[in-house]
Design goal:
single chain; 149 residues; alpha+beta; five-stranded antiparallel beta sheet; two-stranded antiparallel ribbon; 4 helices; 7 strands; 33% helix; 25% strand
């Protein structure tokens, strides 16, 4: 016979039927974690900085105006590219020079277009320090960069 009339029996049945508060909290935490992971994956896939995107974003310099601009390389693109400064195809990949004319390093580089990129003969020199600028121009040693202003 079911003890439906007894209040203690009803309380015991309610405890068995209802999930515990601890179990509810664990389920809530798990759901929130899954939601955060899903959101992170969506952001990384569609809106975040990917290694490929970082590798393809370069500093270009307008050969006509001398002004720099960022541009993300696209497949099949060749230099010179469209420059927002001259409104023409005068944009070339620029090389950074971190030297000052007195032989110290500086934190903000002077950007220089390498002559050979433009099909010109001769070496390229930085207009600020007078040093030769080459492709993948090396930075000053770490000690000098740490002391740079």
């Amino acid at each position: 016979m079911i003890a439906a009339c007894e209040p203690e029996a009803l309380q015991d049945m309610a405890k068995v039927a209802a999930p515990s508060q601890t179990k509810q909290r664990i389920m809530l935490a798990g759901s929130l974690a899954a939601l955060l992971i899903a959101g992170g994956l969506v952001w990384y896939s569609f809106g975040g900085e990917t290694p490929l995107r970082q590798a393809n974003e370069r500093v270009f310099m307008c050969a006509e105006t001398g002004k720099t601009f960022f541009h993300e390389l696209e497949s099949g693109e060749i230099e010179p590219i469209y420059s927002p400064h001259s409104k023409q195809n005068t944009g070339w990949i620029a090389e950074p020079c971190y030297w000052t004319n007195d032989g110290r390093a500086k934190k903000e580089p002077t950007w220089v277009i390498e002559r050979r990129r433009m099909g010109l003969e001769g070496k390229t020199y930085c207009p600020d320090c007078g040093r030769e600028v080459v492709g993948h121009n090396p930075r000053p040693p770490k000690e000098l960069m740490d002391a740079a202003e």
